[in-house]
Recover the amino acids of this structure.
RNA sequence: GCCGGGAUAGCUCAGUCGGCAGAGCGAUUCACUCGUAAUGAAUAGGUCCGGGGUUCGAUUCCCCGUCCCGGCUCCA
C-alpha cells in the first residue's frame, strides 16, 4: 500500500495514498472550527484552495479555510451561487447561465432568460434553494478535457464562450473561469456536479472551485435583488439578468449583514438631506443638480473655509475662473475630442459656441500662461474651488454622490519632473490631514492606476517615469498601495485615495493625477536656469474630490449628527417656561458672541417636545434653563444621543468649553 | 445609455376591482406656561408627475415622455 506524507504547521503524518484534504486535516488534528475548504501547498510551492473531499498529493502542506473568514465566506457564497443557478434551472427551463462569482458581502449569478426576474421570482427561487439545501447534494469535482467540456455545455453558449476564451489565452478574471493557463499549455477544465444522496447528478457547472462538501453546509443565505448586467461587463454584449444574494457562516451573521443594509438605508444622504434640511434636489432643477439649503450650506462653508485656509498655508495660490468658455479652448485642451460626450452641448452667442466646463484644468493653464514663468516660481500650485458640469449618462446620477454639477477643491501644480514625487507626497499628506479633520480617519486604500490599454497619449518614457514617481510617493507616504492596472486617465497615471465611513463602506474621494497631455497641447513653458524654455509637468489633484460627494459621505458616516465644529446648529437653548426666556436669551447671546451657532427655542410647547425636537434635529448640545439656572447663572447640558444631563454647569465654563471644541476643528472622538 | 421597479398633501405612506382622494407627521391658529424624546383642539394644504388614447366617466386601464430608485457600464 502506497503512503503519502502531509504537513500542517510543525506536524506531519503519513496517510494512505488517495487521502483527501479533510482526512489529512483530521489526522493532523488541525481543525479548530467550521472549515469550508483547505489551503494546500504542494511540494513545488504552489498554494491553492482545495475541496475538502479532493485528494491531496504527497508532501502537501494543508491548512483550514474557516467559514468566518473572508476567504471562507467567498467559498460559501460561491457554492450558494451554484445552488441558486440550479434552482433557476429548475424553475426556468431553458435558462442559460453565464457566471456566478462571490463578491464583497455576497454573490451573484447572471442568466439569460426569456423575461427578467420579478420579486416574486426571487421568492420562488429562494424557496427552491432551501429545498436543495435540505437535499444535502454533494459538490463533486471532475477534471475534463476541453472537447468534453464543449460537448457537455453545448447548449450553454456562455459557458462555451468561457471555454474558448480560456483556450485562446484571453485571461478572464472571473472566478468561474478556470485558472489562466500559460501559453501553449493545454488547459484543463473543471466541472462541479451537484450530486443527490442517491447518486443522481442534479446539476453541473463549469467552475474553478473549490466548493463546500455539500449544500447542507450553507447555514444562511438570502436573495437580495435582480438587475440587468452586460455579459462580460461590456456594453456591446447582450444584457443578462443578474440575481444578487448573500450568504453567511451563521444566521446571526446574515442578520447582522441585513441590519447593516437597513442602517445604510436609514443613513442615506438623500433621506437625511431632506429631513435635516441640508440639501434640496427638486425636479425643476434637473437631474444631478442640487441646492444647498442653509443647514447644508453652513457645513459646506466649514469645508470650504478649511480647505481654503489649508491650501494657502501649504503654498498654493488662489484663482477664480468662469464656468463657461469658448469651444476653441476645449478643442485645444482635447476635452472635446476625448471627453466630449460628457460635456453639455454648446451655447451659441455672437457667432461663437460656449461650453460649460467639465474640468478646471484649461483655466488654470491660462492662469499659468498669463505671463512668462520662471523656474524660480516652480512648483506653482494654482488652486480653486471650481464648479464643473458633466453631462453624466442618465442612469449613473445618484443624489449628490454622483452629480452633474459639482465643485472640486481643484488644484494644478506646475512643476519640474524631479519635483513630482515631493509634490505628490505633499498631496497625500494633505489628504491624510483632511480625512482626520473631517472624521473619516486614515485613508483605507491608496491605489496607483497605470496606463490604460485603450487610448492614451504620451511616450512610454513619460508614463514609466510618472508611474514610478507616483509609486515612490505612495511608498514614501507610508501607505501600502495597490496597483490598478490600466485604470489611469488617458493623459497620465493617477493615485486615488479611498476612505471608510462609520459603517465600513469605502468611498473614492481624493484623486491625484499626473498630466502630460495639457502642457503639450497648450505648449506651456517656463524659463529655466539655463535661459531656455522648458515644459513643466502638471499634477492635477482634488482632495475632497467633489465637495458634494464628500459632504454626502460625511452625512451618511455621521448619520447626520455632525461634529460640533461642522454642525449647522451647535447649541439649542430651551427655557423650561416663558418666565425664563430672558435668561435663555442671555445664554444664547453669550454663546453667539463667541461665534457659536445657537438657536433659542422660546416658542410654545412642552419641554419634552422641545428636547425631542433638538434630538431629532441632531443638535450637538441642548441647554435647558429654568429658575435654578437663572439664579446661579448655570446651564443644564444634554449632549446629542445621550439621555444624561450635566447639571449646574456655569455658563461661562460651558461657553469656553464649546468654543474650544469648535476651535479645535476635530471630531469629538477623534 | 442599457435592464427592471416606481411617482398620490411639505415628508412618510394608505386607497380607488374605472364613479369628482385619505391618515400620521409637519405648517397655521387658539387654548395650555409646562424640568429632559411627542399637551389638546381646530384650520389650511392635492392638475393623484406631464401629454395622448380607450371609456358615459381615467388618479386607477393602454401608449409616449419626464423624473426618481436598484443594478450594469462609466466616474469625483
Amino acid at each position: 500500500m502506497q503512503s503519502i506524507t502531509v504537513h500542517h504547521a510543525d506536524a506531519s503524518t503519513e496517510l494512505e495514498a488517495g487521502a483527501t484534504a479533510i482526512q489529512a486535516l483530521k489526522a493532523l488534528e488541525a481543525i479548530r472550527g467550521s472549515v469550508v475548504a483547505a489551503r494546500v501547498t504542494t511540494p513545488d510551492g504552489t498554494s491553492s484552495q482545495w475541496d475538502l473531499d479532493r485528494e491531496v498529493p504527497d508532501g502537501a502542506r494543508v491548512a483550514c479555510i474557516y467559514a468566518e473568514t473572508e476567504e471562507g465566506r467567498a467559498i460559501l457564497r460561491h457554492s450558494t451561487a451554484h445552488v441558486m443557478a440550479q434552482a433557476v434551472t429548475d424553475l426556468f427551463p431553458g435558462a442559460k447561465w453565464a457566471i456566478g462569482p462571490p463578491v464583497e458581502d455576497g454573490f451573484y449569478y447572471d442568466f439569460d432568460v426569456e423575461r427578467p426576474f420579478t420579486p416574486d421570482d426571487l421568492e420562488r427561487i429562494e424557496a427552491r434553494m432551501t429545498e436543495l439545501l435540505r437535499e444535502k447534494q454533494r459538490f463533486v469535482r471532475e477534471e475534463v478535457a476541453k472537447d468534453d467540456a464543449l460537448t457537455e455545455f453545448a447548449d450553454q453558449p456562455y459557458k462555451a464562450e468561457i471555454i474558448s476564451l480560456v483556450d485562446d489565452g484571453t485571461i478572464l478574471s472571473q472566478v468561474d473561469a478556470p485558472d489562466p493557463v500559460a501559453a501553449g499549455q493545454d488547459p484543463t477544465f473543471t466541472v462541479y456536479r451537484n450530486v443527490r444522496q442517491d447518486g443522481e447528478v442534479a446539476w453541473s457547472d463549469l467552475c474553478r472551485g473549490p466548493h463546500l462538501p455539500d449544500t447542507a453546509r450553507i447555514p444562511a443565505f438570502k436573495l437580495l435583488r435582480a438587475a440587468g448586467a452586460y455579459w462580460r461587463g461590456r456594453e456591446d454584449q447582450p444584457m443578462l439578468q443578474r440575481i444578487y444574494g448573500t450568504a453567511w457562516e451563521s444566521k446571526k451573521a446574515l442578520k447582522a449583514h441585513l441590519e447593516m443594509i437597513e442602517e445604510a438605508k436609514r443613513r442615506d444622504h438623500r433621506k437625511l438631506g431632506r429631513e435635516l434640511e441640508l440639501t434640496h434636489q427638486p425636479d425643476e432643477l434637473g437631474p444631478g443638480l442640487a441646492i444647498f439649503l442653509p443647514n447644508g450650506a453652513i457645513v459646506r462653508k466649514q469645508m470650504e473655509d478649511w480647505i481654503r485656509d489649508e491650501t494657502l498655508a501649504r503654498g498654493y495660490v488662489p484663482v477664480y475662473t468662469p464656468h463657461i468658455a469658448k469651444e476653441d479652448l476645449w478643442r485645444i485642451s482635447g476635452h472635446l475630442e476625448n471627453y466630449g460626450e460628457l460635456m453639455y452641448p454648446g451655447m451659441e452667442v455672437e457667432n461663437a459656441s460656449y461650453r460649460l466646463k467639465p474640468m478646471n484644468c484649461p483655466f488654470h493653464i491660462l492662469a499659468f500662461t498669463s505671463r512668462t514663468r520662471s523656474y524660480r516660481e516652480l512648483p506653482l500650485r494654482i488652486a480653486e474651488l471650481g464648479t464643473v458640469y458633466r453631462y453624466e449618462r442618465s442612469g449613473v446620477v445618484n443624489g449628490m454622490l454622483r452629480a452633474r454639477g459639482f465643485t472640486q477643491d481643484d488644484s494644478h501644480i506646475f512643476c519640474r519632473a524631479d519635483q513630482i514625487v515631493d509634490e505628490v507626497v505633499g498631496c497625500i499628506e494633505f489628504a491624510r490631514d483632511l480625512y482626520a479633520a473631517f472624521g473619516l480617519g486614515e485613508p483605507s486604500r491608496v491605489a496607483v492606476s497605470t496606463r490604460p490599454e485603450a487610448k492614451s497619449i504620451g511616450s512610454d518614457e513619460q508614463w514609466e517615469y510618472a508611474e514610478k514617481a507616483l509609486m515612490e510617493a505612495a511608498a514614501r507616504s507610508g501607505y501600502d498601495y495597490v496597483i490598478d492596472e490600466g485604470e489611469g486617465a488617458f493623459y497620465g497615471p493617477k493615485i486615488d485615495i479611498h476612505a471608510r465611513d462609520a459603517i465600513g463602506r469605502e468611498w473614492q474621494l481624493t484623486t491625484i493625477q499626473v498630466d502630460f497631455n495639457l502642457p503639450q497641447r497648450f505648449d506651456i513653458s517656463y524659463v529655466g536656469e539655463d535661459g531656455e524654455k522648458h515644459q513643466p509637468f502638471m499634477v492635477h489633484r482634488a482632495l475632497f474630490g467633489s465637495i458634494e460627494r464628500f459632504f454626502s459621505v460625511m452625512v451618511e458616516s455621521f448619520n447626520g449628527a455632525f461634529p460640533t465644529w461642522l454642525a449647522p446648529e451647535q447649541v439649542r437653548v430651551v427655557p423650561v417656561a416663558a418666565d425664563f426666556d430672558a435668561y435663555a436669551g442671555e445664554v444664547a447671546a453669550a454663546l453667539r458672541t463667541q461665534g457659536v451657532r445657537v438657536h433659542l427655542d422660546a416658542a410654545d410647547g412642552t419641554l419634552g417636545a422641545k428636547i425631542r425636537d433638538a434630538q431629532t434635529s441632531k443638535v450637538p448640545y441642548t441647554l435647558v434653563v429654568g429658575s435654578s439656572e437663572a439664579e446661579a447663572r448655570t446651564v443644564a447640558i444634554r449632549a446629542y444621543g445621550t439621555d444624561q444631563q450635566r447639571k449646574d454647569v456655569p455658563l461661562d465654563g460651558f461657553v469656553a468649553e464649546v468654543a474650544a471644541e469648535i476651535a479645535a476643528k476635530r471630531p469629538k472622538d477623534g
